[in-house]
Amino acid sequence: MIFKAVGDGRPYPEHGMVPRDWAQIPPRQVRLDQLVTTKRELDLHSLLAKDSTFYGDLFPHVVYWQGDLYLEDGLHRALRAALHQRTVLHARVFEYLPPQH
């Protein structure tokens, strides 16, 4: 199995992160088999495009919430890594802590 699980949507509340916020998080290595995807389907065109990261972040976005790592953005990068026999990838990991009331 490539990923820990294949999810369908984000199980965590909206976090409000924007691209500028993600850019402040330094990338770190994440094991593919620890990731839960938030998308069940992938656009094959995105996976095979040579310039797929041209307009976006070079690193996938992962949300750490309630003990799990959710792959929010960058599924095509993670699959590319798996196709190249890699077990880890560099990603920006946001540790989501919901506001206390």
Structure, described:
Pfam families: VapB. With 101 residues, this protein is α/β, with parallel strands linked by helices. The chain has helices at 19-23, 44-48, 75-83; strands spanning 5-6, 28-31, 35-37, 61-65, 68-73, 88-95. The protein is 19% helix and 28% strand. The protein has a 6-stranded mixed sheet with strand order 1-3-5-4-6-2. The termini are far apart.
Count of domains: 1
The level 1 CATH classification is Alpha Beta
- What would the CATH topology be? Conserved hypothetical protein from pyrococcus furiosus pfu- 392566-001, ParB domain
Terminal Cα span: 39 Å
**Principal-axes shape call:** globular
The fraction of residues in strands falls at: 25-35%
List keywords for this structure.
single chain; 101 residues; alpha/beta; Conserved hypothetical protein from pyrococcus furiosus pfu- 392566-001, ParB domain; 19% helix
